[in-house]
Design brief:
Layout: E1 4-7, H1 9-23, E2 30-35, H2 39-49, E3 54-63, E4 66-74, E5 84-92, H3 96-108, E6 113-121, E7 131-135, E8 139-142, H4 143-146
Length: about 150
């Protein structure tokens, strides 16, 4: 049984600013968004950090709210003269997605340092992001998942 906790734009704005402050001294040159959950956050962070190079990678692990057996990664990133990349997702829930993406990027681009960040982290996750803001204890219902649904 999942309880839903609504996460508003106001919360998102405040937490994103906290995350921007946490990572700004690391001087990232590019951002990789994990689609779809990391897209809104990575766009906002790119603006706040003044990073023009934003790329995305897509994974599939969930069908609606049912977890699948295996993770699939779609899309390729291309980096030129980049040494430090911030990998962005909304939540490290099971941790499977972030762990797989970080391993994938690390093996694909051995000379680049990849650092992860999320708005939420669950203590039961197998992967703890380098930077995170909130500990999640139930299912997060992000404003972008609810507020734009056609009625």
């Amino acid at each position: 049984m999942h309880f839903m906790k609504y996460y508003s734009y106001e919360n998102f704005k405040n937490d994103t600013n906290i995350l921007i402050k946490k990572v700004k001294d690391s001087h990232f040159e590019a951002i990789v968004a994990i689609a779809r959950g990391g897209l809104t956050l990575s766009h906002a962070m790119a603006e706040g950090l003044n990073i023009r190079q934003v790329q995305s990678i897509r994974t599939e692990l969930y069908d609606k709210s049912l977890k699948r057996e295996n993770i699939t990664i779609f899309g390729n990133c291309e980096f030129k003269d980049v040494k430090k990349v911030l990998v962005v997702d909304d939540i490290s829930d099971s941790g499977d997605t972030l762990k797989a993406v970080m391993e994938h990027l690390g093996s694909e681009f051995k000379d680049i340092e990849f650092v992860s960040c999320t708005l939420f982290y669950k203590k039961t996750s197998i992967y703890e992001p380098h930077f995170w803001v909130n500990e999640a204890d139930d299912w997060i219902d992000f404003f972008w998942e609810r507020d734009f649904l056609l009625k």
